[in-house]
Specification:
The complex is a heterodimer of chains A (about 300) and B (about 270). With about 300 residues, chain A is an alpha/beta fold. Chain A has helices spanning about 40-50, 70-75, 95-100, 110-120, 130-145, 160-175, 190-195, 210-220, 255-270, 280-290, and strands spanning about 5-15, 15-25, 30-35, 55-60, 65, 80, 150-155, 180-185, 200-205, 205, 225, 240-245, 250-255, 275. Chain B is built from 13 helices and no strands. Chain B is elongated, with a radius of gyration of 20 Å.
Chain lengths: ~300, ~270
Amino acid sequence: MRPLELHDLGKGFRRATVLDGLGLALDAGEVLGLVGPNGAGKSTLMRCIVGLYVPDTGRVLVDGVDALAEPVRARTRLSYLPGETSLYEAMTGQELLDFALAFHPALDGDMVRRCAEAFPLPLDARVRTYSSGMKQKLALRVALAPDVPLLLLDEPDRALDRGARDRLYALIRALRARGRGVLLSSHHLDELEEVADRTAFLVHGHLAGDAEVAGARTRLARVLEAGFERVPEGLALPGGLEVEWDGPRLRARAADDATLQAAAARLAAAGATSLSFGGARLMAVYDALYAAGRTA
Amino acid sequence: MIAAKCWREMRLYALLYVVLLGGLLGLALLFWPDAREKLVEKGGQFEFLAPMQALKDFFKDAASRLEPAAFAAYVGVQQFFKGVNIVGVACAVLMGCSTIAKERERGTFELLASRPVSRGRILWSTTWVLALILVVPVFASSLLVLPYARAQGYELPVGGLLQASLHSSLFVLLFLGLTLLGSVLLRTQVEVATAIGAFVILQVGIYFVPVVQHGSLFRLTDYDVYRPMVPGNLDWTGFLLGTEVWLVLAVVGVWLLAFTLFRRRDL
């Protein structure tokens, strides 16, 4: 049974449509990165799954449970980290952990221990004395501890330093290894790319189709960058290339692989000191999909 | 757990409420002998100054040479007409604003409502604690009048004080329900406090205008209502089947509406 299935999910606020017939499936043991600019609807999507928002249309299945018909039962099968960390500040860290985790029918004891090691905190101090990073770590200890098939993590790396982010992603990999499904949104695209099995791009209320993303990746893969000590004279490149010079650095985009290979050979012969093919990194795909005019 | 959290957050308000309600009643009782003496001496002068019939009736009763009747009138006005109406309603609005709207405003509702717990349970666990915080001091302080009355040589009936306490408690719970309803419908504490505060002020304002005062909710708890209750002149059947039925229905209706809307709304 899949941890999460969304069918034709729609949600709007007054005149603005945020989610428009969105469909999604997340397998057990899969980490799905959810990407989109601010306001694209990532948090709205997660809130609809959790039941904080009531969708206008569609179905939400959490581990096979209809989350709209049986929201409480569905929430026994998921854990959620909100995008904006707001905790009960009058409580101590330990009191907040005890309070928030007491509602869940089962906790993953090993994950509780690993979270405590990864995110050590002064649990006898009141939450109001914590820094924003410490509050995020406490919220993560709450979110990662329940023994549930689905985890929804809305910007879990917010306010975390580099070391804490690395430990977080290690924990997410451990959750994946245990067969949990993780839906994860983040603006740290390089790190998201490392941890996510798939990435879903939220565009105009729906997820960009595989063909659209693959197209962007292909376009980006046909980029060649070369560096010279100084701009070479009499350089002859094959036709069909879009060439930009930035000082002694060249960036060329080709319509096909053969042209790109031929260009690379000529650049090497002309004494290029560096030569690289543009990898379709997540950041670049993001830029391509959300270029000016694509997003509201 | 949610109830314990609510109590923890509200205990200072609860203490303030007990101190205000009990303190005002205690002060009033301590000054009773002097007050009575002056009321009797001045006779109908206060009655003449009173702006409305309910207060004219109170001064007439309190200035009565029949001491037990005068004392019952005094307790009715000080504890129920003044104390619970002002302190109880104000605290109901204050505490009602400090629950749902406050949680939503500071963002903690997302943490709570994403737990495997129903919205109905969240609201109920919060509201019964508030209801107890508001109602228990009304009964406790009212019944504490009994030993004082005996010490002064008066015999107030327990039934009368219980009836008046129940009636005034239902009135406070009605305002708590209205505030919860506002808390469900509106986004911030300021919005809820403004809306409910304006409603209360309007109701009080209407109450003091003779022609339209019957449109005020405070007519349900003015001295005319407590006048027969506190001395024990109402039998329980008549009491329960009279205004109380409608008051209970109003409270239940407002609370049910708040619960129903809360279950269906985006948080």
